[in-house]
User: Which sequence fits this backbone?
């Protein structure tokens, strides 16, 4: 079965430190990759996405993620975090080889809670 | 922000009662989804729709049914609510770009 693994359920860091949130997926077939962020008591917001082209994608608030096909990974990084980055982060994968309506389904990881401490 | 609303936002109900949650979109997107979010499980797909009256099951569909009679509305029904269905429910929409846009969620408590 296709699966998405987020290796860390919680990541505590200090403000201005770098952070990496890891995401691996189960199959190396053609994929679309996404990171979503969820702030407390809110819905999920799309943070960044990889569909094609450059393997390094960036968000407007300083996060970046790199698609690594050989390692089936899509890790999220930020060189210097802020208190306001405290949230839960979800990695999601769309496997392009699925047929019909299931072609538009996303499989989510279980999430990583990033806590930024002063 | 994508125009997605969910109603009600909070609901407390008793075991055995029927419950219907509504998702409404103003984006005219073709695909709509219902997820539940539980600690330690992330988001799990309940049902999805790929057009009016076209729906299919997700990975946790037992005990849930859905209906979509109009493009803009996707209803999730718990025919007889159980305590295991206490959760936060999210609706999402997508078009051909594949990324999904999420509603604000409904917190359901079954006592």
Assistant:
């Amino acid at each position: 079965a296709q699966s998405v693994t987020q290796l860390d359920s919680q990541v505590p860091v200090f403000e201005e430190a770098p952070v990496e949130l890891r995401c691996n997926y189960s199959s190396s077939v053609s994929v679309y990759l996404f990171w979503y962020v969820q702030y407390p008591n809110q819905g999920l917001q799309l943070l960044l996405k990889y569909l094609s082209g450059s393997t390094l994608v960036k968000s407007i608030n300083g996060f970046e993620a790199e698609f690594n096909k050989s390692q089936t990974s899509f890790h999220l990084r930020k060189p210097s975090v802020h208190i306001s980055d405290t949230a839960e982060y979800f990695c999601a994968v769309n496997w392009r080889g699925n047929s019909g309506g299931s072609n538009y389904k996303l499989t989510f990881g279980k999430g990583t809670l990033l806590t930024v401490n002063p | 922000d994508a125009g997605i609303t969910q109603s009600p936002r909070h609901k407390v109900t008793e075991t055995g009662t029927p419950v219907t949650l509504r998702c409404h979109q103003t984006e005219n997107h073709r695909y709509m989804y219902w997820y539940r979010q539980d600690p330690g499980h992330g988001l799990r797909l309940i049902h999805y729709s790929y057009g009016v009256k076209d729906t299919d099951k997700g990975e946790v569909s037992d005990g849930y049914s859905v209906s979509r009679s109009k493009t803009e509305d996707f209803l999730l029904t718990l025919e007889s609510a159980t305590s295991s269905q206490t959760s936060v429910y999210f609706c999402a929409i997508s078009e051909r770009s594949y990324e999904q846009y999420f509603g604000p969620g409904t917190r359901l408590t079954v006592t």
In short: Chain B has one domain: 4-110.
